[in-house]
Amino acid sequence: MLNFPFWKVGLILTILLWGAVLAIPNALSDGFLGIAPKEPSDPSNEVAMAAYTQQLQEAEDSWWFLPSGKLNLGLDLQGGVYLLMEIDPAEIAANRLETVQSDIRSSLNRSPLVERNPPVQNEDRLTIEILNPEEDMDEAVKRLNRLNPTIGTTQTNLFTVDRTGDRFIQLTVPNNARTALAADAQSKMMEIIRRRIDPDGVAEISITPQGDNRIILEAPGEADPKRIKDILGQAGRLTFNMANLDQSAIRAAVTSGRPPPQEELVDSIDYGQILINRIPELTGADIATANRCFDEANFPAVCFRLNSSAATKFYNLTRNNMNRNFAIVLDGTSMSSPTIRSPIPGGNVIIEGRFTIEEAEDLSAIIEAGELPAKLNFLDERTVGPTLGQESIAAGSRASMIGLALVGVFMILAYGLVGGFAVGSLMSNIVLIIGALSGFGATLTLPGIAGIILTIGMAVDANVIVFERIREEQANGRSPATAIQAGYERALSAILDANITTFIAASILYMVGSGPVKGFAVTLAIGILTSVFTAFVVTRWFTVLYLRTFRPKRLAM
Amino acid sequence: MLLRLWPEKTKVSFMNLRFIALIVSVTALIASAALLGMRGLNLGIDFAGGAVIEITEPADISADDIRAAVQPLITGEVQVNSARGTGPDAPDIAVIRFKPQPPVGDETPDEAQNRAGDEVNAALKALVDGDRTAENSRFEIRSEASVGPKVSGELFRSGIIALTVALTLMMIYISFRFQWQYALGAVVALFHDVILTMGMFALTGFEFNLATIAALLTIVGYSMNDTVIVFDRVREEARKYKKLELSKVVDLAINATMSRTLLTSGTTLLALLSIFLFGGPVLRGMSFALIFGVVVGTYSSIFVASAVVLLLGIDRGDKPKREVEGFQGVS
């Protein structure tokens, strides 16, 4: 216990140094660490550009040997928006079944005619009535089975085909297909969410899956959850439909409630309500890029470009329908319904509306990102403003400093010099905790800071156990060296048992907790490991060094 | 002269006090259970759902103005509490709370909660915008949280599961390292601590939320830590004095570890006190739970855990091979 050969001392120093190197970056600026600064979005802003140049210079002169990882601050400390969203698997199943309906109908209605009425969809069940069941039933089942698509990259089929009664076939989305659909939709939607919220790919947004059908969005620095929910709350289904602006036809459809077959009534931003063709000419999938631009009157607008095949289609459409109107419809509302004056080549389209710049930017991000396969339900939403985050950081650091000082004074009062050794190892303990948190890229939350402070209080426990033992052994008349030897040996099993049980609690907390609570569990767990090391190894080493150098007759404690 | 919280070489007979402790503990447990049953816990939005919005309160807008603006949008009561800002120059703060909202039409309960949150947010902005003076320009939404009924139910369940799993695993570990009597003693003490802490929450009306569950688990860890230290000593003394009556052995162990128990509780309480006083309002409930828990945990490792072991008795050396050795010999 009292032997510290060179390799052991080397190991202790290496661990302490490693902790210090990992912890140091937290006290330095980004530039110092060689983290390239972000280029200002507006190059004409001289102040921003000057700061940028200086940071760039700092980054070049940085200390190459320092790691660049700083502690990640949780949203409760740096401010931001947390959103937990859910996709309803039944809804995805129903939506997907609806999209294959037109394929089903065209497949069944090839001669011989096998369908009697349009199929009836009830959530994720589709019922088809066959006109001449005696002759056509087998053929219809065969065709439906051939048509049955697989989901994503899996081998799972979308539906099962069952005969019900004499004349009906029922298509059902089974449970395993639902699961596959949800998993497929989850990854697709995470991608769409990222493109909508962060079209330029510059923000530090984290989008993570949770379970089979949930998605967590964390947007640091964002202060307005409403805007994010607005952007994500829209399905983003964009279509181009031929439109009918004839006032008398629209009025007739509104009063009778029955628009002409093949047409439907939609709300329109500039005309109240208009009639459009049910079947769209183009959809969102045909759009290559979309961005915010300005119209001729210099109002913000959304410009987009169609991909090449859609551009040709659009050119033909405009050429064949001169002086008629088409409508650009987003989620059931016509955004614009211009009259075609001349054929439009090149596939460039502009939506003029009375947008603000921000609205135009959000809308173009929604259009470019594409349609969400299902609606997102917002389950849990938490926002912390920047001021509260700053205050929490200040309060947390103040509490840590005061806690550390109190515990330090207390230990020195109780154990004198060796108490001082314990305080020294407590400091190295904190450096190790911060180093380990930075090294693992863990997130520091406010409860996490509380975890560190709690560790400060509890970390001295191992020291106290040992010191009490040493006191006892000295009181029994042993010399300092043998007392220390015996003290450490006898305290070991108690210290390990005690800390392993606390570690169990911390691990459970980590597995079950979320967000800030998880941060608490991480610091608690890391704190237990480092405090056992510092109390049992570092303090002992200090004590032994003192013993060797001064050879005291008796340890004052 | 160095500080002594506990004199050396004491021979206090703690186990003679165990019947008094039993009365104290049972009374406290019954009181806690009664409080939990009658008053219940003040569940935070993590577990009850609903919304909490914290804003800086402009000087010429009162809590009543805010209530008047928000109440029409909300089913059920809207609570508005004003508080002084922390710091000399800080603006006052208003905290607005309301319960989960009933769905209208074909909304789901989660959608209803969301809609209400958005409407209140807009109403607050309008209230301040409609009356913007220099004083009001510091208006800010400091924090906003809205939890739907689906997630709050899940969070509650996972909190309970966490507590149960942690207790079970610790019990298994202790029975593996000691004997089952010790494990049972430790777990009885842990339940004692958890129930009393929850009773304290019912009594004071402090908000019970996810952070409180974290605090409870930490208390469980701390109390177990304390208990293990005493047990370790009991095991050691029992080996040393094979003929001594068990209650005397337990007393010896508690006396020997008393100084350590008080010192560690002391430093932990100092650290916790600094969180409670200086760590800001967000950590107040959590640190309150921890402070209470540390005190109760220290008490229970002496008077509950040890007393249960004494009641159950332990195997003493007649089957020495079954005794699990410690980690001794590792250096």
Give the arrangement of secondary structure elements.
The complex is a heterodimer of chains A (557) and B (331).
Chain A: H1 6-23, H2 46-60, E1 72-73, H3 75-78, E2 80-87, H4 89-108, E3 120-122, E4 125-129, H5 133-147, E5 160-164, E6 168-172, H6 175-197, E7 206-210, E8 214-220, H7 225-233, E9 238-244, H8 247-256, E10 263-268, E11 272-277, E12 282-283, E13 287-294, E14 300-306, H9 308-320, E15 325-330, E16 333-336, E17 348-352, H10 357-369, E18 376-384, H11 386-440, E19 443-444, H12 446-475, H13 480-512, H14 516-550
Parallel strand pairs in A: 1-19, 10-16
Antiparallel strand pairs in A: 2-8, 2-18, 3-4, 4-6, 5-6, 7-8, 9-11, 9-12, 9-15, 10-11, 13-14, 14-17, 15-16
Chain B: H1 18-38, E1 42-43, H2 45-48, E2 50-56, H3 63-70, E3 78-83, E4 93-98, H4 109-129, E5 141-147, H5 149-177, H6 180-204, E6 207-208, H7 210-240, H8 246-278, H9 284-312
Parallel strand pairs in B: 1-6
Antiparallel strand pairs in B: 2-4, 2-5, 3-4
Helix pairs in contact in B: 1-6, 5-6, 5-7, 6-7, 6-9, 7-8, 7-9, 8-9
Could you estimate the helical fraction of the residues of chain A in percent?
40-55%
**Fourth CATH level, the homologous superfamily of the largest domain in chain B:** Multidrug efflux transporter AcrB transmembrane domain
Please give the share of residues in helix of chain B: 55-70%
User: How many DSSP helices of chain B?
Assistant: 9
Quaternary organization: heterodimer
